[in-house]
Amino acid sequence: MERTSPINTLDTRTQGWINGFIGVVIFSGSLPATRLAVMEFDPAFLTMIRAAIAAALGVLLLWLFKEKRPARNQWGPLVVVALGVVIGFPLLTALALQYVTSAHSIVFIGLLPLATAVFGVLRGGERPRPVFWMFSILGSVCVMGYAFAQGLSAAPAGDLLMLLAVLACGLGYAEGATLSRSLGGWQVICWALVVSVPVVVPLSLVLAPTHFSGISLPAWLSLGYVSLFSMLIGFVFWYRGLAQGGIAAVGQLQLLQPFFGLALAAGLLHEQVSLGMVLVTVAVIGCVAGAKKFAH
């Protein structure tokens, strides 16, 4: 039997971290773009139309590359992926952003690495070292400590929705990454979008506003971003990265997402980014190095 050399293994893991990093950078623009879009689009309509647009592109890709249909035992996991990242996370975050700013909601994304790691163990069969969990939990505690310090009573509905969104997303990430090992990274998100078509297309038509004349260009551009990049292109890199470098390990890169997201929120939406937000972000970024070192 041919043995895999340590160099090849290292190269694969490095590629996984690179792909994962690209995915995180793309996802970092999701919440600020969603925040802009929900100012003029209904959250439920936004969720459905972004998935419908991405699904159309996904079907086109599957047709162009003549991809085979998934096996019978792969449809169940694809439904979980669709419920988690195609419908669940976008809808819950869009609803949450009616109550909280994108800067505040982005902080909750710091919980995604822990959620992804837990589901990676439950669904992907991974077994990170104990010290890994210490760094992962520490990063999440920093994030939640900041959220509580801001006073959850100010917007309990928004914070609860963000927590539910994180759980849905973590499950969808882990399930999709596990499935991508056999189905392929970009194929997973494309087929998950196909699975969602019977739900998102009819609801897009039902929930569509009576007229679009008052929608501004920034709102349209935001819709385009969350449809093309957040719903499709980002997942191509993200699922490939998780499959190559490990769900729990590469998933810790999500701790960087608040940093990029806060910068975008400040630059594009002119939202105030406090010193506390910056300090928490720096703290959780520091946890990435520790988690990465002890993930395997």
Automatic annotation (TrEMBL):
Its main location: membrane. The keyword Glycosyltransferase does not apply. The chain crosses the membrane at residues 20-38, 44-65, 77-97, 103-122, 131-149, 155-174, 186-207, 219-239, 246-267, 273-291. One of its GO terms (cellular component) is membrane. InterPro entries: AA-Vitamin_Transporters (IPR050638), EamA_dom (IPR000620), EmrE-like (IPR037185). It is found in: Membrane. Residues 17-141, 158-287 form the EamA domain. It is a multi-pass membrane protein. Pfam families: EamA. Keywords: Membrane, Transmembrane, Transmembrane helix. It comes from the Bacteria. The keyword Transcription regulation does not apply. Belongs to the EamA transporter family. This is Transporter. It comes from Pseudomonas simiae.
